């Protein structure tokens, strides 16, 4: 019988809703190791998922509460299943979803956002849930040493065409996940608050994801 591995958070030293501390939710141990290698452990914690999250809109309350990831996530955040969310008790200023730049990663991000929509809506409404989209491609010019990151295939092809038009030689590689990124790229595009592209997730954003995955919004907050 298959048994899921335990979910283990890699904690940081600072905590509190106004501390600037942030929790990265990532896909699996390989991604967690990569993020832990470049994070600032003073204020950046990491929680790896093990497999795809349960659909928290469709699942029963018991099913969600039995899920090891969701139990650890609630404990990490400082939330309680049986009471309304008290922002003053949050252990982090920000919760950041950081998944691989592929279809599975997009799906995981949508499923995780649905959990927050149903069970921690106050955190969403307080604009404390965020998403970082990692790049899918790295393009480097040996002549200049410049590196450009592309976030989807259309952008990648557009950049390549422009470099060809300017007769600039370049090399490129596709990132297969966070674990395949070099430390500098991961730090610059995903981890460093000064350079990363952080997107706040709103209820409207999550409702759009629910509409795509489930054909409509069904608000089952308990």
**Per CATH, what is the topology of the largest domain?**
Rossmann fold
Beta-strand proportion:
15-25%
Overall shape: it is: globular
Q: Compute the CA-based radius of gyration.
A: 19 Å
Series of secondary-structure elements, N-terminal to C-terminal? EHEHHEHHEEEHEHEH
Number of helices: 8
Strand order within the widest sheet? 2-1-3-4-8
Query: What is the count of distinct domains?
Result: 2
Task: Please name the CATH architecture of the largest domain.
Answer: 3-Layer(aba) Sandwich
Report the CATH C-level class of the largest domain.
Alpha Beta
Q: Keyphrases for this structure?
A:
222 residues, alpha/beta, Rossmann fold, 2 domains, five-stranded mixed β-sheet, three-stranded antiparallel β-sheet
Structure description:
The chain has 222 residues and is an alpha/beta fold. The protein has 2 domains: 22-134 and 179-214, Rossmann fold (3-Layer(aba) Sandwich); 137-174, no CATH class. Helix content is 37%, strand content 16%. A 5-stranded mixed sheet has the order 2-1-3-4-8, with helices on both faces. α1 links the parallel β1 (22-27) and β2 (44-49). α1 (28-38) packs across α7 (183-191) and α4 packs across α8. The longest helix is centred in the middle third of the chain and has 17 residues, at 103-119. The radius of gyration is 19 Å and the shape is globular. Mean pLDDT is 90; it is low at 1-5.
């Amino acid at each position: 019988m298959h048994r899921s591995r335990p979910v283990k958070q890699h904690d940081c030293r600072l905590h509190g809703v106004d501390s600037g501390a942030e929790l990265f939710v990532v896909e699996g141990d390989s991604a967690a190791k990569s993020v832990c290698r470049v994070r600032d452990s003073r204020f950046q914690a990491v929680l790896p998922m093990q497999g795809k999250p349960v659909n928290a809109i469709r699942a029963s309350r018991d099913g969600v509460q039995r899920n090891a990831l969701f139990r650890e996530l609630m404990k990490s955040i400082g939330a309680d299943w049986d009471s309304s969310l008290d922002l003053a008790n949050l252990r982090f200023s920000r919760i950041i979803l950081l998944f691989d730049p592929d279809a599975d990663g997009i799906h995981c991000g949508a499923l995780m956002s649905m959990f927050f929509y149903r069970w921690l809506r106050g955190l969403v409404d307080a604009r404390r849930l965020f998403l970082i989209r990692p790049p899918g491609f790295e393009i480097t010019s040996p002549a200049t040493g410049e590196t450009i990151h592309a976030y989807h295939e259309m952008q990648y092809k557009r950049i390549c065409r422009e470099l060809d038009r300017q007769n600039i030689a370049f090399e490129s590689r596709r990132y297969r996940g966070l674990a395949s990124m070099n430390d500098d790229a991961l730090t610059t595009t995903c981890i460093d608050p000064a350079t990363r592209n952080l997107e706040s997730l709103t209820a409207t954003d999550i409702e759009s994801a629910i509409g795509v995955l489930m054909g409509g919004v069904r608000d089952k907050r308990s």
